[in-house]
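Might you be able to consider the sequence and fold that I enclose below?
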Amino acid sequence: MNFDFALILEPFLLSLKTISVSAILFIVIGIPTAYLLAKKDLKFKWLLNTIVTLPLIFPPIAVGFFLLLILGRNGFIGSFFYKFDISLIFSFSGIVIAAFIAGLPLMVKPIQASIELFPKDIKEASYISGKSQIKTFFYIVMPNIKNSLIVALLISTARALGEVGITLMLGGNIIGKTDTISLAIYNAVFDGNYNLAMILSGILVIISLLFFVALNFFEKRKNV
């Protein structure tokens, strides 16, 4: 097996960096989104719910295509950032966005369900004691559903790690720049380098097993 070790290390480090940033985004954006969707009186709840859920039911490559139109140089979002010389596609930003979009539903929906199932009498007691809805959520609800939060974060991060379709469209699959470990496997198979593809796949298997062990641990704690 004669190949450059960088062909393994670079995609691995890029994927690690991508899911690390994505995990932060899942926490910063995913949790507030779940909180909003759990509110029964939220206006345009159906629209937000549709946007969040769409990546689960729509083919990833098609989601990537539409995002490419929106975030590209001539898109209504991409053109704004392009004025400041910021590119959202064919760059690290593109693969982070792809990973985030792919994993967001798996972060939001379980947390939303946990919030909706949280006992109303406990929340009402908090309101009576003078705490606002926001404080009740952060100091009462979140500590009690922390295992659900962790499970959702692990699942969404695992999904982000394995994302291919959206990443292919937004990242461009540029060797050495935007080829995550999943795309590196695709490239290796396409080039006929099955040994490299096997090693990269083995790395993903090991990472997936680690995710599975962690998920099993927190699932058991959640049910205690």
In short: The mean pLDDT is 91. The two ends are 48 Å apart (CA to CA). The first helix runs from residue 6 to 37.
